[in-house]
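for the recovery benchmark. tokens below, seq after
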């Protein structure tokens, strides 16, 4: 008779190191790793195009890694509950383990699955594999969730939590007979019209790549992180966001890698402290999404629910395509389209531009990011959009309207970022690069730029749009 068997249900934890569900399964006996494709169970947020691309590569890497350890990745599609029940019946598994996710519709689904499996006398357990701190562990003095980041993160750091990651198993005990598996290619996660060349060039997916990226960042970039992180043309940030989203690296592994580097260094640790606080913003996003589950579609600040937005489809399309006539905005939107990623400073600039200069609802921007970002993450995306729109927790005040000209001058001072992504403006001198419409005709002619044909005229006039945004804000300012 086969040894006792446990199913490990992989989700946003596509790694073998520091994987609590896998660790628990190893203690049972044979391990059946499974991934279930069930996009219809993700509520309003089934994975977008860029996420599906990443998922395809990540599952491929995970399957290869499992194979090296003498195991396999079983793929199933359909209702998660049915798949798990069927797999347990086929393999005689007595346990099903998974690492938790925190999106509202997934929480509801998982609760129901856990109960149903337990009712059928299966051991069903979930673990924390994605966060440093569970969202319900952190409370303010009144026992309520935090809505401001600094006290939230202070509270986290004051906790005496064990953040040691679990080891990667050397081998995985396997059943004599493997159950059937889908073929990954049949799920058609990769695009049929190949728009993904830039994403392919940009990223190496998987657990091994995630750790290389982490180690390189810690060794080469972390010290300067605080001073360099806002400059859009420089690779000064970790670019770990998609790896974190898909769980190819865990925040505990990041935490320990950073601490190890600090232990071996002397002097100031501004870079490391700031970097860990950004990982803390990710935790804050999950804290908020867990406690305010409506906020992926509804403003946390209720007065913003009546904001006089404009739904101008043509303006939205021009923003999406990087054709607004504001070079820094267009550079960022084209970086997103080409690479599936955008610099954080650029995300704030384009989000502010959409919500404030164009008065288009932040939800439309969040949806576009959802489809095009390889790191699309419901908690961080919701936090980022509500923060920028001014309607979320600890949000930028609504009247702080990013100036798309001075933001470019300040955070792309040599104009490299704009020239890389908006090559039609490459020959413009820096003086006019951030606002080509203001350049004298002969300067435009010398640079070979014909506004309105080579590059668009600005979609809105900055001072006029700014005033319109402030007027709209007056209408909802009073908190209800
Ligand atoms: P680093 O600067 O190296 O930071 C390390 C890690 O900390 C990141 O990988 C990320 O996990 C976390 N982090 C950093 N900044 C933030 C932040 N502001 N909020 C939450 N977590 C943070 N991040 C996503 O992962 N997915 C999203 O869908 C997403 N959407 C966003 C939308 C808007 C409008 C804005 C303003 C920000 C959004 N962010 C999102 C946050 C942030 O822009 C990215 O996490 C960051 O740019 C990723 O690059 P990095 O890995 O080099 O970050």
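predicted aa per position
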């Amino acid at each position: 008779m086969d040894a006792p068997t446990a199913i490990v249900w992989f989700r946003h934890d596509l790694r073998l190191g520091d994987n609590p569900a896998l660790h628990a399964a190893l203690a049972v006996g044979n391990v059946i790793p499974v991934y279930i494709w069930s996009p219809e169970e993700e509520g309003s947020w089934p994975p977008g195009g860029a996420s599906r691309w990443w998922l395809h590569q990540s599952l491929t890497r995970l399957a290869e890694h499992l194979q090296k350890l003498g195991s396999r990745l079983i793929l199933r599609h359909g209702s998660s509950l049915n798949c798990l029940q069927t797999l347990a019946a086929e393999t005689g598994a007595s346990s099903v383990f998974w690492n938790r996710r925190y999106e509202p519709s997934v929480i509801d689904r998982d609760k129901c699955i856990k109960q149903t499996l337990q009712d059928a006398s299966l051991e069903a357990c979930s673990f924390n594999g994605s966060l440093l701190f569970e969202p319900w562990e952190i409370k303010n003095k009144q026992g309520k969730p935090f809505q401001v980041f600094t006290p939230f993160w202070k509270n986290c750091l004051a906790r005496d939590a064990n953040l040691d990651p679990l080891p990667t198993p050397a081998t995985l005990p396997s059943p004599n007979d493997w159950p059937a598996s889908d073929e990954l290619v049949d799920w058609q996660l990769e695009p049929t019209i190949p728009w993904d060349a830039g994403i392919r060039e940009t990223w190496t997916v998987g657990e091994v790549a995630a750790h290389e990226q982490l180690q390189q960042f810690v060794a080469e970039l972390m010290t300067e992180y605080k001073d360099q992180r806002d400059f859009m043309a420089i690779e000064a940030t970790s670019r770990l966001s998609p790896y974190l989203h898909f769980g190819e690296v865990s925040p505990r592994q990041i935490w320990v890698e950073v601490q190890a580097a600090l232990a071996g260094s002397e002097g100031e640790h501004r870079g490391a402290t700031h970097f860990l606080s950004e990982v803390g913003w990710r935790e804050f996003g999950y804290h908020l999404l867990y406690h305010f589950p409506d906020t992926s579609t509804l403003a946390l600040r209720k007065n913003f629910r009546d904001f006089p937005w404009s739904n101008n489809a043509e303006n939205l399309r021009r923003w999406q395509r990087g054709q607004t006539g504001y070079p820094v905005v267009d550079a960022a939107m084209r970086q997103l389209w080409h690479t599936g990623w955008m610099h954080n400073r650029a995300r704030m600039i384009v989000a502010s531009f959409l919500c404030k200069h164009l008065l288009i609802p932040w939800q439309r921007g969040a949806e576009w990011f959802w489809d095009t970002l390889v790191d699309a993450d419901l908690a961080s995306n919701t936090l980022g959009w509500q923060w920028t729109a001014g309607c979320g927790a600890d949000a930028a005040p609504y009247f702080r309207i990013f100036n798309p000209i001075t933001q470019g001058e300040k955070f792309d001072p040599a104009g490299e970022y704009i020239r890389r992504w908006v090559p039609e403006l490459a020959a413009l001198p820096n003086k006019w690069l951030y606002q080509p419409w203001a350049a004298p005709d002969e300067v435009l002619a010398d640079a070979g730029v014909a506004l309105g044909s080579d590059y668009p005229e600005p979609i809105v006039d900055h001072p006029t749009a700014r005033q319109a945004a402030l007027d709209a804000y007056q209408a909802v300012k009073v908190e209800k």
